[in-house]
Design goal:
The chain is mainly alpha-helical and 100 residues long. The protein is built from 4 helices and no strands. It is elongated and about 60 Å long.
């Protein structure tokens, strides 16, 4: 067994578990609703609202494109490039036999 000094903050939760915080489910649920559910209800592809577009940009800091997906599977190209704001029409999805 190894003992490390100074790596764990003291237990201030009162639970005796060694945890320094208690998980606040209500606060987490409100945060998920505000920061995830509602924005995606308005912008399902995350391309048009400032909050979701910022998240999208921050997750790809080098602005890399994944064009190989569309080249290796051309039937997926329209789906991969679709950015709404409306849901992609069934005629554009690769699992529909009526693709245009």
């Amino acid at each position: 067994r190894r003992l490390f000094f100074g790596s764990d903050p003291p237990d201030t939760s009162g639970s005796g578990s060694g945890s320094t915080t208690q998980f606040d489910y209500e606060s987490a649920a409100r945060g998920e609703l505000q920061n995830s559910v509602r924005p995606f209800q308005q912008d399902p592809y995350g391309c048009h609202s400032d909050a979701l577009l910022t998240k999208r940009i921050n997750r790809n800091p080098y602005r890399r494109k994944h064009e190989a997906y569309a080249l290796s599977c051309p039937d997926m190209k329209q789906l991969l490039e679709w950015c709404g704001p409306d849901i992609i029409p069934q005629s554009k999805v690769p699992w529909n036999n009526n693709m245009n």
